[in-house]
Amino acid sequence: xxxxxxxxxxxxxxxxxxxxxxxxxxxxxxxxxxxxxxxxxxxxxxxxxxxxxxxxxxxxxxxxxxxxxxxxxxxxxxxxxxxxxxxxxxxxxxxxxxxxxxxxxxxxxxxxxxxxxxxxxxxxxxxxxxxxxxxxxxxxxxxxxxxxxxxxxxxxxxxxxxxxxxxxxxxxxxxxxxxxxxxxxxxxxxxxxxxxxxxxxxxxxxxxxxxxxxxxxxxxxxxxxxxxxxxxxxxxxxxxxxxxxxxxxxxxxxxxxxxxxxxxxxxxxxxxxxxxxxxxxxxxxxxxxxxxxxxxxxxxxxxxxxxxxxxxxxxxxxxxxxxxxxxxxxxxxxxxxxxxxxxxxxxxxxxxxxxxxxxxxxxxxxxxxxxxxxxxxxxxxxxxxxxxxxxxxxxxxxxxxxxxxxxxxxxxxxxxxxxxxxxxxxxxxxxxxxxxxxxxxxxxxxxxxxxxxxxxxxxxxxxxxxxxxxxxxxxxxxxxxxxxxxxxxxxxxxxxxxxxxxxxxxxxxxxxxxxxxxxxxxxxxxxxxxxxxxxxxxxxxxxxxxxxxxxxxxxxxxxxxxxxxxxxxxxxxxxxxxxxxxxxxxxxxxxxxxxxxxxxxxxxxxxxxxxxxxxxxxxxxxxxxxxxxxxxxxxxxxxxxxxxxxxxxxxxxxxxxxxxxxxxxxxxxxxxxxxxxxxxxxxxxxxxxxxxxxxxxxxxxxxxxxxxxxxxxxxxxxxxxxxxxxxxxxxxxxxxxxxxxxxxxxxxxxxxxxxxxxxxxxxxxxxxxxxxxxxxxxxxxxxxxxxxxxxxxxxxxxxxxxxxxxxxxxxxxxxxxxxxxxxxxxxxxxxxxxxxxxxxxxxxxxxxxxxxxxxxxxxxxxxxxxxxxxxxxxxxxxxxxxxxxxxxxxxxxxxxxxxxxxxxxxxxxxxxxxxxxxxxxxxxxxxxxxxxxxxxxxxxxxxxxxxxxxxxxxxxxxxxxxxxxxxxxxxxxxxxxxxxxxxxxxxxxxxxxxxxxxxxxxxxxxxxxxxxxxxxxxxxxxxxxxxxxxxxxxxxxxxxxxxxxxxxxxxxxxxxxxxxxxxxxxxxxxxxxxxxxxxxxxxxxxxxxxxxxxxxxxxxxxxxxxxxxxxxxxxxxxxxxxxxxxxxxxxxxxxxxxxxxxxxxxxxxxxxxxxxxxxxxxxxxxxxxxxxxxxxxxxxxxxxxxxxxxxxxxxxxxxxxxxxxxxxxxxxxxxxxxxxxxxxxxxxxxxxxxxxxxxxxxxxxxxxxxxxxxxxxxxxxxxxxxxxxxxxxxxxxxxxxxxxxxxxxxxxxxxxxxxxxxxxxxxxxxxxxxxxxxxxxxxxxxxxxxxxxxxxxxxxxxxxxxxxxxxxxxxxxxx
Length: 1359
Fold this sequence. Notes:
Layout: H1 9-26, H2 33-61, H3 66-98, H4 108-111, H5 128-152, H6 184-196, E1 204-210, H7 217-227, E2 235-242, H8 247-257, H9 267-278, E3 283-290, H10 295-302, E4 312-318, H11 321-326, E5 333-335, H12 341-353, H13 362-373, H14 379-388, H15 395-402, H16 418-425, H17 432-437, E6 447-448, H18 449-458, H19 467-479, E7 484-485, E8 492-494, H20 497-507, H21 515-524, E9 546-548, E10 569-571, E11 593-595, E12 617-618, E13 620-622, E14 642-648, H22 656-662, E15 669-676, H23 690-697, E16 706-710, E17 731-735, E18 754-758, E19 765-766, H24 768-771, E20 781-785, E21 792-793, E22 808-812, E23 830-834, E24 852-856, H25 860-864, E25 874-878, H26 888-891, E26 899-903, E27 926-930, E28 952-956, E29 988-992, E30 1008-1012, H27 1020-1024, E31 1038-1042, E32 1061-1065, E33 1086-1090, E34 1109-1113, E35 1133-1137, H28 1148-1152, E36 1159-1163, H29 1175-1180, H30 1183-1186, E37 1192-1196, H31 1197-1200, E38 1236-1240, E39 1256-1260, H32 1270-1273, E40 1281-1285, E41 1304-1308, H33 1325-1328, E42 1333-1336, E43 1339-1341, H34 1344-1356
Parallel strand pairs: 1-4, 1-5, 2-3, 3-4, 9-10, 10-11, 11-12, 13-14, 14-15, 15-16, 16-17, 17-18, 18-20, 19-21, 20-22, 22-23, 23-24, 24-25, 25-26, 26-27, 27-28, 28-29, 29-30, 30-31, 31-32, 32-33, 33-34, 34-35, 35-36, 36-37, 37-38, 38-39, 39-40, 40-41, 41-42
Antiparallel strand pairs: 6-8, 7-8, 42-43
Helix pairs in contact: 1-2, 1-3, 2-3, 2-5, 3-5, 6-7, 8-9, 8-10, 12-13, 12-14, 13-15, 14-16, 18-19, 22-23
Organism: Rubroshorea leprosula
Domain R13L1/DRL21-like LRR repeat region: 632-760
InterPro entries: Apaf_helical (IPR042197), LRR_dom_sf (IPR032675), LRR_R13L1-DRL21 (IPR056789), NB-ARC (IPR002182), P-loop_NTPase (IPR027417), Rx_N (IPR041118), WH-like_DNA-bd_sf (IPR036388), WHD_DRP (IPR058922)
């Protein structure tokens, strides 16, 4: 079976066309005459049914006749059965010719889960008698269906309907996808909020775009996102969230978007990394298409955002106002309205006619206006219909669209806009199955073009089974707006939600969709990548055409893979442990695509691969040395290869004749080629001239676009490298060719854009031979790296100059290079010089266009040699020797500099000698200085000036820093300013690891202050305080203080009213805060106080009506916390942990006011005492009355004893009179919003009942728990994660089983529950075998059910 069970004439049309071809091919098979005669009957009946499909599809779209749908379903089943028989006959014939015998057993059902029963697999190939019987049965079914078509009134169609296109025609085109009309007002309003609104109590604020599907929310967000610049936001990221709010995935996407190479999977590590990356940076994050209504998930995701700079923004797009409320965006919400008719008409015309009006086609305007009215102002509908009519200027065609019956279908049946249904209805028939096929993808699934094309090919959906044809299909679907580029990754594509709904709709009820199973994978984090082997029964899947094992731990394939004679695509991408291909792989003569990239441990290939002459894609060819392995001459069998090819282990070529026989020059479809020898240049390496002869005979076809040569051992390169004959070669890399003493002549190439030369240790001079007769006229990027013996770079002296287009030049780790840069670099904008201590610029070198400069491990003389840098905006200096301050002759040219980074300059004592050159730094806004241990001050003389427009200043590990020029920082301790004309605009200051810093004054413009480990900064308390009159000149919003051993108190005064976030951590001597410290901070939204061992009391929290989150942890001496409720009515998160001496905490009035509290964690506070509650609240229960919205609760036994019914009080030690020992208790069952519950209690109460809303339950430190109570879990039908830890006596789980919804079970430090008990033969196997993820003491118990599920997805997802 090649295609999925998807209804519709388009799919059946493709299936029938394929049947015609297979029937024709069957004539060449060695079949019994009787079988051949019966197959001829099929050939006479199939064309009749084929001619009826067009009419049947159109009629069943309107659902006017249910019998037609039944008829089409029977046709579909019949087509599959016919295809199965024809495939099996072909496989039998192939086995006979290959002398393959295998006793087949009906074991596939044990391998593929029952949930895949819609895929009809035939495990036993049929015998001759079975063949005749099945053929007879199908013939009768064919005749019956033909007869029924008359009863149904189906009419045979002849010819193509309007809109039909031949395969050879180029895809229709419309203007760029992001054409937008009518959103300028909304765009301007949002940009104004982005750039001017500094609101947000947490340092960032949420801006919401709210509207119905298809109205243009994503388009508007994209417009705004692309409008902002790095000057507005230092970091920005786009994330398509969709209905699965996967925190780990979202965090990873953000990290990758801001430049982190993320290989982490642990959420904690990911969030720590993101927290570090965002720290004190102003960021913009777009969360597109958000559906999440779970505050806990949003709360968890946002934690790293708190480290960002003030003014950071998050834009969300959503259809749901509840989402806006959860994410705190109600005060900045934009309700997006539909477009006006004239605006919608403009969008429609742009995609239909290529212009935004009808001036050139006035005869179509009236019809166009009527069509647009039916789009109801939705730009997606107008865009899709415009794409449908693109290039079609026939008035009757437009009228047919306008008058189609599909407009009249009730939207309520499917929520699919009639305009979108119409766009599908008029798709060419060859595109319909390809589009409907995408119904298999989950919403917002990002797919690559080649990935989808390979799946179409494997499914037999293309009229011409080639990648080129698939690319044409794909491009046409893009041009018709069915696919659009992903906002986060331009190489990937997505479908709009409504387009995805359309695909699901047209696919019909019988479409098997794996979205649910993929969601399970996301929700439960099942580690399917841990699969390390395939069973032999894989060979039973005789119809398998597509097998994707990418990124698994598989080490080899069983020999039974050789029985998959219809396999066309085998993907082993990034199987990093893969060692060996099966010898029988040579049987797969229909294999077209073999991707083995990222299989570094694969060292050879079996010689039988030479039989795979139909290969179109082979990512890697490994030259073997021994008998039975592939030799280089076998490459001649793969003349159809295209795309990328790496030829490895060329040192094994012992006979030059093999290179000649490889016939590489005749493989004209390759785009990229890598030729690699071993990196071992020892005595075993051939010292003769054979390597240059081998390389000479490996000359590729002139169509090649990219060439990389690695570890070549010749003394020079053959002449074909650099030959202008290669008119398409735009990328060339020569790497680790250590014996080579002469570079090839490359300058004459007219198309070479990127050249990388690395590890050429034999090169001492790059001279005129490098240029040849040319000037590198098209070269845009040039890299020299690890050239350890390179001494001189000589340039030709010709007028006009070399490298006219060079924009990026990198010279790294060339320690002996003493020459100078070329003089003519008229286009250079990015220059990196690293590890070249004696290199410098020529006095004639012009760097006027240079914008980015990075210098590392060089001498200060290089800086002094650089003159005339008027365009430089970014400068990074690292490890520069002999530099005590920035050279004045260098800094005087930095008139456009915006960002300056200095790191590891161990001799740097100051930045500027006397400050006279600072006037040239008028554009400098950001400055980071790291690890400069001798830096004493920024300017050697205190009367020097300071960059007045500097907004961000960060100093890390500057141990000798004593002063930041307090006389020039606007406000001194007495409030005066020594130089009123020098008003500093500093907004963010970071001081980290500056122990010698003693004095600090702050400008009133400062918004963020971070101080870490500045142990001698003893005046901080006085400097930050305001007088009692509430001086509001300060703009400080974020204050973070950590590791201040000298700080014992905040002396008098108050923090500024502008403060929004306040954090104090690791101040071991801090004893108290002034009571009125926060009395003016009415906008304060976040307080965190951690690890202050001597702190006894907190400041008053009065007037903090905007406080949302309060965290107090590990303050061992803390005795009381101020009353919360009346002061903090908007508090949503409260965490109090590790406060050993805390006694006073909550009372009834306090809790009565915390109605919005959603997260409560109280743990490890053994001395806590609660004030009694009024009797009526005791009787009704405590938490469910006072905290009705609680979503997450974390408690230990000290708190739990106050919340339990009287029946459980006997489990605990007596509670003193006046406490809550007498309260009637609390039923956790009534907390209907609770989703997360963590209880760590020495003694477990036997009769506690939990709420059915729980999705996560964690139980730990229970000393007396021997068996998990049955009633504890019986009502938890939504539970997804269960964790049990540190329960030393726990020996059994409920015999009745665990909740069926459970996806992850983790048990730690419960010694009586061994991993073996959960394995296949263990006593808990029956209870847990259906749970995809079971982890016992960090041992991942492999679940065969989960294994089958993953294999089912990989094998059958797109068969």
